[in-house]
Each structure stands twice: as structure tokens, then as C-alpha cells.
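input
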Amino acid sequence: MKPRVTVVIPTINRESLPIALNSVTKQTFQDFEVIVVDDSVDQSVVSNGFRVIRTGGLVGVSKARNLGMSNV
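output
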């Protein structure tokens, strides 16, 4: 069964990404999935149970967000 909410987080070498992911997981509403779109060249995001899509690097925030949305 698909989750009711999908959270798409485009990122590029964001140091605060663990804080954002922690915030999502602490919500009282739990029927969600998280898709992290890693737009960094080094593809450094570790999944930690979240879905990670790798762009190959530097496609930009709009394309990264759209890529995440097309994978919902």
C-alpha cells in the first residue's frame, strides 16, 4: 500500500540533511515515505532507510525536485 504523503528532499552537499531527516521521522503522522534526491557530484548521501535517487551531479534544484516527484 502506498503511503499517503511523500516528502521529496533535493540536496547537494547539505550538512543539515540529517537534521531535516530526523525532523521528518519525529512527526506524529507516520504514513509517509521520504525520497532524497542527491544532486552532488560525489553522491555522498547515505540512505539510512530512506529512498535515495542520485542525479549524477549538478542538474539543479528544479530538475532534482521533478525527478523526485516522478518517482513517487
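quick obs: The chain has a mean pLDDT of 92.
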